[in-house]
Amino acid sequence: GAAESKQPEASGGGSGAVNPLFAALNQGGDITKGLKKVTRDMTNKDKTVSGKVEVVKPKASATSAASKKKAPAKQKPAAIRKQGFRIWVENFTEGVQEIKEADIKNEVYITNCKNAGFSVAPKVKTVTIDSCQKVQIEINEVLTSVDMINCKGCTLYIKKMAPTINIDKCDGPRVVLFQELLDTKPQIVTSMTSDMNISVPGATADDDFKDVPIPYQYITTVDPQSKAVQSVAMSHMG
Fold first, then answer.
1. Bridge partners of 218?
2. Phi, psi of 165 (to 5 degrees)
3. CA 158, CA 233: separation in Å to the nearest integer?
4. Per-run averaged pLDDT (10 residues), the chain, 238 residues
5. What string of DSSP letters covers the chain?
6. What is the distance between the alpha carbons of residues 19 and 7, in angstroms, rounded to a whole number?
7. pTM here?
């Protein structure tokens, strides 16, 4: 409809992209280009400084130490699998995945994903995002709640219905709320979360979405006579 003609950006300022989720994530591997890699010579330097006298022996010990370190960090295979009514979406590190085979009885559980995007088109019971980094999730309609836990730098695009949105133990989340969703008056609950922004539609369908910071610092005072304790959120300027 006309209310959804202006889309929010995937990140940063400027005018909105046609499809914020897919435009940001279809670049694939480019999203991780800025990551710094540790090379073998950097590792060997560390071993030399650590007190190894001979040049030949540290090579063997550095190799064995490197293999020991690599084993725990092995990435588990990415998968979308069903277990009862729960749909597990896990270990994705790139691309955009569409969850289509689901209905009102299903819980979608997205976990241990990084630098990837997800689209949940069907109406489902709940959507949970747990222990993810820099993922974007487009959610159409949820019967009970959307829950984000232990995540860093993740973005939710919620379009039509989600009675409750729970954000717990997250760093830098962004929640984009479309007008059709706002008309249902969803409740947003935050706890132990920092640097959170909510994006809301502009005054008209042609206006850009506006980011509003959610307070996470509070001023607490105690009345000396009544001993009443009052906490007030610190306002964000700018």
1. 233
2. -120, 115
3. 26
4. 53 45 52 43 45 50 56 80 96 96 96 98 97 98 98 98 98 97 96 96 89 92 95 74
5. -GGGSSPPPSSSSSSPPSSHHHHHHTTGGGGGTTPPPPPHHHHHHHHHHTT---SHHHHHHHHHHHHHHHTTTPPPPPEEEEETTEEEEE---SSEEEE-S--TT-EEEEES-BS-EEEEEEEEEEEEEES-BS-EEEEEEEEEEEEEES-BS-EEEEEEE-SEEEEES-BS-EEEE-HHHHTT--EEEEES-BSEEEEE--SSTTSPPEEEEEP--EEEEE-TTT--EEEEEPPPP-
6. 7
7. 0.70
- What are the tokens at 153? 């730098």
Q: Which amino acid belongs to residue 17?
A: A
Written as six digits, the tokens of 13 are 């300022």
Q: Which tokens go with 41?
A: 């010579």
Residue 42 tokens read as 């950097």
